[in-house]
Amino acid sequence: MHVRPLGPGDAGDADLAAFLLSAWRKLHSASHRPPRCPRCDARGATCDGLDHSRLPQFHCHGCNRRFNRLTGTPMARLRPEDKLRAFFTLISLPASAAEVGRKLEIQPETVAHWSLQIRLWLLALDPEGSWESRVQLGVRYAVVPASVRDAPAKAAFGCRCTLVGSDSPSLSQADDGPLLMRVCPLCERAAHSA
Ligand SMILES: [Zn+2]
Ligand SMILES: [Zn+2]
C-alpha cells in the first residue's frame, strides 16, 4: 500500500483497465435505444438525437428532463475526457496523485477526484467490490486504534472499509498496536462532502 515512484515496468492491471474501458464504451454507446431515466427511473424515454458531446440524448416523459447514458453516474462531467483511457491503466498502481498528474498533465486534485469517482463507479457496477479493491491510486488508509479494532465505526451508509490484512490468520495473533484500514469510496465521498 506504500506509494512509490512509477517504474518503467509498471504496466498496471490490464484486466481492470479493460473492464473500465469496456464499461466506459457502454456509457458512450451510439445506440438510440433509451435506457431508464436515471432521475425518476421511468421507462419510455425518446431519443432526441445527439447532445453537445455527440452522445445520444434522451427525453424522459416522466420527469420531463433530458439525459444521456453518463447522467447520474459517477463518470458524468469528468474533464478532460480524453485522458481517462490512460488513467484507467494507471489506477491500479500505488503511485502518488502528483506523479500521475505530471504524467498525464492534469492537476493532482483531478487525479484524486477521478480516482474517487471511478471507485464509486466500480462499486455501482460490481457491488461485491472485487474490482474496486484492485484500485491503488488515490486510495487512503486510516489508522484504527487497537481499542476499536473489532468494530471500526461505519462512517457512511453502506460503508465497506476493510482492515488491511484482515484475511490473514496472523492478524488475530497480533493483539496490540494500531491497524490500518482501507478507506472505502463511500466514506471518502462522505468526508469530501462534509
Ligand atoms: Zn425521468
Ligand atoms: Zn467506509
From TrEMBL:
<dbReference type="Pfam" id="PF05344">
    <property type="entry name" value="DUF746"/>
</dbReference>
<protein>
    <submittedName>
        <fullName>DUF746 domain-containing protein</fullName>
    </submittedName>
</protein>
<dbReference type="InterPro" id="IPR008008">
    <property type="entry name" value="DUF746"/>
</dbReference>
<feature type="domain" description="DUF746">
    <location>
        <begin position="83"/>
        <end position="142"/>
    </location>
</feature>
